[in-house]
Amino acid sequence: MKTADTPEAWDVVDSKERFRGHIINVVTDTVKMPRDEVADRDYVVHPGAVAVLALDDRDRVLLIRQYRHPTRMLMWELPAGIRDVEGESLVAGAARELAEEAGYRADTWHTLVDLRTSPGMSDERIRVFLARDLTKVETDFVHRHEEIDMPVEWVPLADAVEKALMGMIHNSPAVAGILAAYAASVEGFALLRPADAPEA
After folding, report:
1. How far apart are CA 53 and CA 173, in angstroms?
2. What is the rounded distance in angstroms from the CA atom of residue 171 to the CA atom of residue 187?
């Protein structure tokens, strides 16, 4: 048996939109289950996001700290953002977020890991990129709301792994990206997919 997630769509016999927001919607689908049963499934419809694990030539990870209201926490995260620019490729969106949130550009990009953040309650997809060969850049991006005064911290990759495993970093793309980068570094990042790899 090949261990890989595969596309499959069970029949939806009814669908109701419960909430429409600025970024997300909430719907209830009535889904035909095995043995001809039906069940309601509530979930969040999300446009998806990209995140960037930027790794410098000293094997340090770039982390930013941002307030996340649902968790009531200041969380250490990777530069990231919603897929909200029509026609923009995922890697172009990631490059934009890296420049806007952290003030860096990268010459080398790879797909690091693809995530379904909470598949029991949301269709959100996040692609985490590995960005290397970094250069500091100036940007005229205006930070607002939670992004005001976001500190940027360079953390050695091994230390970031320890912080993730010790429960000091909770943001899921950050944890997944840190662990994936550490695992990929064993092979010198040779097994990573290209930045424009198709998304399942």
Report:
1. 9
2. 25
Strand partners, 111: 129, 193
Question: pLDDT, tens digit, for every residue of 37-77?
Answer: 999 999 999 999 999 999 999 999 999 999 998 899 999 99
pLDDT, tens only, 142-184: 656 556 667 899 999 999 999 999 999 999 999 999 999 999 9
- 147, 162, 187, 199: which one is catalytic? 147
Is 147 catalytic? The answer is: yes
**pTM score:** 0.91
Give residues with Cβ within 8 angstroms of 194, minimum separation 6.
110, 111
DSSP-derived 3-state class of residue 200: coil
| Residues in contact with 25: Cβ distance below 8 Å, sequence separation at least 6, in sequence order | 17, 19, 44, 45
